[in-house]
Amino acid sequence: MANRAQIPTKSSALIAMIADEDTVVGFLLAGVGNVDIRRKTNYLIVDSKTTVKQIEDAFKEFTTREDIAIVLISQYVANMIRFLVDSYNKPVPAILEIPSKDHPYDPAHDSVLSRVKYLFSTESVASGRR
Amino acid sequence: MEERHLIPESGVAADQEPSQEAVEVVNRREVRLRPGAEEKLVLQFMDSLNSYLSFSHSLSSTLGQAWMELASARHSMGTARLNTSLLDLKFHPASTTLKIAECDDDSVDAKARFVLRKWISSEEVGEDEDSNSTKSPEPADDDDEVCYSQVRRERAKSLSVFGILIPPKLRAAQQSFERALETLVEMANMQSSFLYSFHQLHQEVEDTKE
């Protein structure tokens, strides 16, 4: 028996970003950038020098912060930490994989879509409907 | 029939009241097996998944345009004037935030609903957090003018990070990224909706297997 999923309601939550420079700059222009008193930001700019560990740490931090509602992550960056993104299953913050300039969005690699593909697999349909 | 199987067999007589847990399980099964409920969930799942994919195509197109405008602005301003090294780490709250509400459709699970709040001034952010603050009502016309000037002010503040003379392409890029944000929030809502339907249907499939 599943417990009721808790959705934390909030009137002012942030959008976090893990993406390349142009994407982050663009969304900062749109006003989503936040720097708190401890000088912590709600974004990580990924370039050639960014390590996988840094990306993992940023993902874990953004998905556990209570003031973040959506995490935007470029799909090519999500592919670097695919195991971590696949294992995430909370409703909030929502994880959205977005395209980047050099890497178009591929629905086949999207973690959330891959999870629901199961509903259309022959195994689930055949075994449940006999 | 379903109700009798769910009442535990371990010594509970027919005339005794079933445990609270068994009653809750019975009620839940009644919600799932309501005529048309499963079809409604499947339709909701398909609709929200279709909308999610449509929004993702739209997002790719909007972002493509936004990157083009940003590249054009960088070409006219110079690379040194439009990069992330200009971003400082001074305290500043986000002007564009989200409101999270919970949608409860008479089921045991709930789904999140995201609402975009664009260009909220820093004073207003402080008022939101202060639940004891009161604000006197203003006439509707003044509200529109105040909102418009506030939006313009917040937009200008956001652009001012990259200098005083802002080319039109950078303003256009800002608006494109704002449109992309609106699409992303809709995608988040659709994702929340189809994940909710998916979990309900998945539960149904698992229960049928049992």
Automatic annotation (TrEMBL), chain A:
<comment type="function">
    <text>Subunit of the V1 complex of vacuolar(H+)-ATPase (V-ATPase), a multisubunit enzyme composed of a peripheral complex (V1) that hydrolyzes ATP and a membrane integral complex (V0) that translocates protons. V-ATPase is responsible for acidifying and maintaining the pH of intracellular compartments.</text>
</comment>
<dbReference type="InterPro" id="IPR008218">
    <property type="entry name" value="ATPase_V1-cplx_f_g_su"/>
</dbReference>
<keyword id="KW-0375">Hydrogen ion transport</keyword>
<dbReference type="InterPro" id="IPR036906">
    <property type="entry name" value="ATPase_V1_fsu_sf"/>
</dbReference>
<comment type="similarity">
    <text>Belongs to the V-ATPase F subunit family.</text>
</comment>
<comment type="subunit">
    <text>V-ATPase is a heteromultimeric enzyme made up of two complexes: the ATP-hydrolytic V1 complex and the proton translocation V0 complex.</text>
</comment>
<dbReference type="Pfam" id="PF01990">
    <property type="entry name" value="ATP-synt_F"/>
</dbReference>
<keyword id="KW-0813">Transport</keyword>
<keyword id="KW-0406">Ion transport</keyword>
<dbReference type="InterPro" id="IPR005772">
    <property type="entry name" value="ATPase_V1-cplx_fsu_euk"/>
</dbReference>
<protein>
    <recommendedName>
        <fullName>V-type proton ATPase subunit F</fullName>
    </recommendedName>
</protein>
Automatic annotation (TrEMBL), chain B:
<feature type="region of interest" description="Disordered">
    <location>
        <begin position="125"/>
        <end position="145"/>
    </location>
</feature>
<dbReference type="Pfam" id="PF21730">
    <property type="entry name" value="Vma22_CCDC115"/>
</dbReference>
<dbReference type="InterPro" id="IPR040357">
    <property type="entry name" value="Vma22/CCDC115"/>
</dbReference>
<protein>
    <recommendedName>
        <fullName>Vacuolar ATPase assembly protein VMA22</fullName>
    </recommendedName>
</protein>
